[in-house]
User: What shape does this take?
Amino acid sequence: MRPEDLILVSVDDHVVEPATMFHQHLPAQYKAQAPRVVRKKDGSDVWVFQGEQIPNIGLNAVVGRPLEEYGMEPTSFEQLRPGTYDIHERIRDMNVNGVLASMCFPSFPGLCGALFFRQADKPLAQVILRAYNDWHIDEWCAAYPGRFIPLGLLPFWDPQLMADEVRRIAKKGCHAVTFTESPDALGLPSLHNAHWDPFWKACSDEGTVVCIHIGSGAGMKFSSMDAPVDVMITVQPIACVNCAADLLWSRVLKDFPNLKIALSEGGIGWIPYFLERADYVHSHHHHWTHQDFGGKNPSDVFRDHVITCFIDDPVGVRNRHGIGIDNITWECDYPHSDTTWPRSPEILARSFEGVPDDEINKITYENALRWFRADPFKYRPKAKCTAGALRAESPDVDLSVKSQGGRPPIEGEARPVTTQDVLAQLATVYSTQPE
Assistant: This one.
C-alpha cells in the first residue's frame, strides 16, 4: 500500500491545554479556584492550582524543533508549536501528517490525571476534573467531529465516583478513560485488590476502554542518577510489561470478561515473547500456583482483552501474528520527541513492506475504530480520509524546523547527558516561584 493511501488513526497523542480551557466549563462559584496559567519573571509559563506550581505546561512537547534542542522543555507557550494547544492548528498538523483521527492524553494534570488525586479538597478536585472532561469532550474533540477519540480523566480517590464519571462521560460519547499502570505507586490499592471493582464494572458495562499510558504510575524509570538518560528513554516503553503481567495474572480479566485495556505507548516488539513466556509459565506452574484461565492460554485471554500500539516498530510488525492482528493499533505521539510527525505515512510504509492490505488497514485504523467505538466515516467519505486526501486539505502548513530557545541539560562538555543532568535542569527551571 502506498503511503498516501493509508488511513491513519493515532491512539496516543497529547494535548497541551490552553490557558482558557476552564472559562466555559465551570460554575461561577468555582472559577476563582480553577487552575490558571501564570507567567513568571524568568519568562516561563506554569499552571498553578491550589498553590501548587505544576511542571510543566508541555513536558517534552518539542515537535518542530531542531533535534539538538530536544529535552524536557518547553517552558512557555511561545516555545510551542501552535498545534500543540490550538485546536484549529492541531487539525492542520494532523492533515499535513495524513492523520484522520487522534486520541489525546493530558499534559498538566499528568497522564492519568493524578494532579486531582493529590488535592486535599476532594470536592473541589472533582468539580475541576469534571470540567476538564467537559472541555476535552465538548470543546477540544467536538470542534471537529470525527477527528478525535475522546479520553476522560477519573477521580481515583473513590472507585464509585470513578464509576459514576465513566457512565456520565459515556453518555457524552466518550468511551475511553486514562488509568494508572501502578496505583500502588500512588499509595492506592494494587490492581489485584477488589477496591477497584465498581470502576471495572462500569467500564465493562459501558464498553469503555481503560487506557494505561507508560509512566502513569511510578513515573519515568531511572536505573541510576548517573546513568545516561538514553537508558530511561530506551526502557520506558518496554517497562509497561510489568503492568501487562499484573493485569494478565490478576482476577480482573476473569471477573470482568467484557473489560478492554489499551497499553498506550508501550510498543509491540516485546509482546510475542511476553505471551510465549506467559503460556510457558501457565503450562509449567499452574498446578501449584492455582491459576485457572477456563481452559484458555494466557495469550488467548490477553488477545480477548488488550490492545497494543506502536510508533515505529518494524520488528513488532514482522511478528504481528504472534501478537494478534486484531490487537495492534498505531500512534503518532504528537507533539513529543518520539513522534514521527510529519512523515508518519512514509515511515509506516517502510514497516509494511510485504504486509497484506487487509492487515495494514486493521493496524492503521480498523482496530482502533472498533475498540474505541468511533466512526469518522459518518462525517466524511472514506475517500477523503486517506493520508493523501488530508494532506491536500492543508498544503500551506509550515514544516520548517524552528529553533525555540531550547538548550541541552549540559553545555560545553562532550559527555553523555545523564539522568542527574536532566533532573537538575528541571529543578533550575522550576526553582523560582510564580509572581
The first strand starts at residue 8 and ends at 14.
